[in-house]
Amino acid sequence: MGTSVGVGGIVSGVQWRELVDALVAQDRARMVTPLQDRVSLATRRKTAWTEFDGLARKLQDAAKALQTGSAFKAYSTSVSPTASGRTLFTATAGDTAVPGAYRAEVLSLARAEKLSGRVVTDPAVALGLAGTFQVNGQQVTVAVGDSLNDVRDKIGAVNTGASGTGVSASVLTSSAGRSRLVLSADTAGSTGVPLTDGPEGVLKDLGFLDSQTRTVSSATVAVAAALGVTVPPPSTIKIGNRTISVDLAVDSLTSIAARIRAAGGEAEVAAESSGGANAYRLRVGSSVTASADPNSADTLTALGISEGGRTTVRQVVAGSAAYTGAGGGTATGSTRLLDLGIAGAGAGLTVGSAINISGVRGDGTSVSLGFTVQDADTVDTLLARINDATSGFGAGTRPATASIGPDGKLRLEDGTGGDSRLALSIGVVPSNGGASTAALGGFTTETVGRSRELVDGSDAQMRIDGVLVTRGSNTIGDALSGVSINLQQAEVGTVVDFTVARDNASSSQKVKDFVKAYNDVLSFFNGQQLSGQPLANETALRRVFSSFTEALRTDVPSAGSFSRGTLVGMTLDRNGRLELNETTFNTAMSTNLSAVQSLFGSSGIGAAMVSATTLATRSGDGTIVAQQDSLDATSGRLNRRITVMEQRVQERREALVARFSAMESALSRLQSQGNALSASILGLNK
Q1: Beta bridge partners of residue 458, listed in sequence order
Q2: What's residue 307's pLDDT?
Q3: pLDDT averaged over consecutive 10-residue blocks of the chain (686 residues)?
Q4: Rounded CA gap, 312 and 308, in Å?
C-alpha cells in the first residue's frame, strides 16, 4: 500500500501532479512573473542610463577643450626642404607655442661617447693587473687574476640602481685572437665616459688612456741634447709590467719608442706644431712608473711623463727576426745587405738577389714592388724602397713608414691611427733564379691600430636665427617656447627656414568633435522616445537633454560680434541636429580669434555645456547616478518580493501535493476494505 502514495492517480486514476504543476504555474504567473518583468525593465533602464552617461561624458570632454581654450591653441610647424633632400630636423609645437618664422642650421648632433681599450688575445685569461680606477665617481677594483671579461663585469656591476655610472661595458672580438673592452656612455652628450685612473695606472694598462712625455725639438736626437739639459745616469723605467732601460744621453724618443714596442708595449712618437715649428712627444699606451732603480724617478721627471688622453694608436707590423750585421752585432741602417744576418747566421743575400716587397696599406690598398741587390746596398736602401712615395708604402692617401729598431727588427708603422689593415711581406729570389723564400723572416702585427675614442661624445649644436644653442640631447625642447626640435642630421652651412603657425584646421576639428558629441546625445535621446524603449517618456532624461540644448544657446556679450554660436556658423537644424559651417567658422577665427575663444570659453558655450554635463554625470549626486541608484533600490525591493512570492508558490505546491497524497491514501484504504468485505461475502456464500 505504501508504494501507491508516491505516484499521482495510481489509485484514483486522476493525474493530479499535472494538475498541481498547472496550478503552481498559474500562481507563479500571477505572483512572480510581473515582479521579474519589472526587474528586467529596471535593468534595461539602468543600461540605457549607463549608455547615456558615456555619451554625456564624451560631450563633456569635447566641451572642456573649448572651455579651457586648448582647442584654439593648436599650432603647426613647417620645415623647408634642403637642397640635398636631407631632413636635418623636425619640429612640433605645443599649446604654449608662439607663431613665428625662424632660420636654423644644424652644426652637430649629440652623440654618446664610446671608448676602446687595448687588444688582448684571450678575454678569459688573467691580465695580471691590480689597482683601482673610477667610472663616473664609482670605484672599480681590479685584482691580479682578473681577465678582461672580469673587468667588464665589475664595470657593469657599478652601473646599477639610482647611483649607476651611466656607462656600459662589453667585450668586442673583431677577429680570432683580437678582443677589446669597449665602454659606452648610456646617454649622449659631451659628458661622455668619465674616467679617473688610480695610482696604479690600471686604465692606462687597459688601454683607455695613454701616458706622454714633454715635447722635444727632435724625435731622433738624444733626449738630453734635444732638451738641452743635464739628465740623470742610465736607468730603467716600468712600462705597465715591463721594465726597459733608458739612457737619455744616448736615447732619442724614437729609440725609446722602439724599445717599448720591442718589449710588447704600445708606443709612438707624435709630431705637434708648436710656435710654427714641429715638436715631438712620446706617447705610451700603458702606465709609466719608476722602477726600483734609484735614478728611475729622475728619468721620468726629465721626460716629463704625464697623463695623456684618448689619442689613436697606430698599427705597427714588426719582423719576427732580429737582424745582425758583420761580426754578429745588431744591424743598423748602414749595414750592407750582403752582410745581413739573422741571429748570427747569414741571410743569404748576394749581388743579383731579387727582393720582392708586398703588402697592404692601412686603408687596404695593395703594395707590390721590388729591387735587385747591388754590392753597396744597405738596410737603408731596403727601407727607402719600402718607403717609396711613388709606389711603396709611403705612397697613397695613408702612407706608412718602415725603420729598423735598436733591437735589429724591421718595423712598418702606419702613419694614421685607428683600425688598420697594414701588412708586410718580404720575399727573396736568389741570384741563381731559385724559388722565392722568406729569407728575411716573417712579419706580424706588433701593435694593433685602434681608436681609443670610437665615438666622440658631443653635445648637439644648432643656430637659430644666428644664436648658438647647445644641448646634451638631440631633442631640444627649451630653445623656443612650446616648440620641441628633434635633430636628425647635421649639415654645416645649410640654413633652413621653419615656421610655427596657428593650426586653424585643428581648432575647427575640435569644434566638429563637439558638434558630433552633441548629435550623438541627440540620436540617443530621440531613439529613447520610441515606443518600447526603456527610457521612453522619462522626465529626467528629457530634463537633462534640455539643459544640454540650453547650453548651446548661451549668450556671451563679452565676445562682441561673436556673442552667439550662430554667428560663428554653429546652428541647430529643424530636427534639432547641431551643424557647423566651417567657412563661417574659419572666417571668424581669422577675423577675431580672441572673440571666438570668449564665445566658447570660461563664460561661454563650452563652460555652460561642461556645467550641464557635470550636473548629469557627477558621481554621488548627478542626475544619472541618482536614476541608477533609484533603479538599483527598486530592483532590490522587487527581488526581495520575488523571493517571498517564490516561497509562497513553493508552499502552495507542497500543500496541494499533501492533500492529493492524503486522498490517494484514503482511497487506498477504502479499496482494501472493499476487497476484504468481498472476500467475506464470498466465504459466506460458500
Answers
A1: 111
A2: 79
A3: 42 71 86 87 90 94 90 88 90 90 95 91 93 94 95 94 92 89 92 89 90 88 83 89 90 89 85 79 89 90 84 90 87 92 83 93 95 94 95 95 89 92 92 70 89 90 95 93 94 93 88 95 93 90 94 91 92 93 91 91 92 92 90 89 88 84 80 80 78
A4: 11
Q: At CA 185, angle to CA 180 and CA 189, rounded to 5?
A: 135
Task: Show Cβ contacts of residue 651 under 8 Å, excluding neighbours closer than 6 positions.
Answer: none
Of 268, 282, 307, 287, residue with least CA distance to 417: 268
Task: List helix spans (H) across 69-167.
Answer: 148-157
285-319 pLDDT, tens per residue? 888 989 999 999 999 888 888 877 788 889 999 99
Alpha-carbon gap, residue 319 to 386, rounded angstroms? 14
How is the chain split into domains, by residue range?
2-31+635-685, 44-72+505-617, 75-110+459-502, 114-205, 210-309, 317-446
pLDDT for the residue 546: 94
As a whole number of angstroms, the distance between CA 472 and CA 460 comes to 6
**Cα gap 198→204, rounded to integer Å:** 10
Q: If you ran DSSP here, which 8-state letter would residue 568 be given?
A: G
Q: Hey, what's the cell of 79? A: 620645415
The CATH number fitting domain 317-446, selected from 3.30.70, 1.20.1260, 2.60.40, 1.20.58: 2.60.40
Q: Which three cell numbers stand for residue 109?
A: 648632433
Secondary structure, 3-state, 411-440? EEEEEEECCCCCEEEEEEECCCCCCCECCC
3-state secondary structure of 443: strand
Give CA–CA dist 369/389, Å, rounded: 12
Question: What stretch of H or E contains 615?
Answer: helix 605-617
- Contacts of 500-503 with CB under 8 Å at 24 or more apart are 500/75, 500/76, 500/77, 500/91, 500/93, 500/97, 500/98, 500/99, 500/100, 500/101, 500/102, 501/75, 501/76, 501/77, 501/78, 501/99, 502/74, 502/75, 502/76, 502/99, 502/593, 503/74, 503/75, 503/76
C-alpha cell at 458: 658631443
Task: Report how far residue 382's alpha carbon sits from residue 379's, in angstroms, rounded to the nearest whole number.
Answer: 5
Beta pairing partners, 281: 270
Distance from the first to the final alpha carbon of the chain? 29
Q: What is the pLDDT of residue 5?
A: 38
DSSP 326-343: GGGPBP-TTSBGGG-EET
What is the C-alpha separation between 515 and 235, in angstroms, rounded?
A: 92
| Alpha carbon distance 331, 344 (integer Å) | 10
What element of type H or E holds 91? strand 89-93
Helix (H) or strand (E) holding 284: strand 277-284
- What lies within 8 Å, CB to CB, of 655 at 6+ separation is none
> How many CB atoms are located within 10 Å of the residue 272 CB?
10
Round to whole Å and give the CA distance between 36 and 205.
Answer: 88
- What's the CA angle centered on 47, arms 45 and 48, to 5 degrees? 65
Cell 687588444 sits on residue: 119
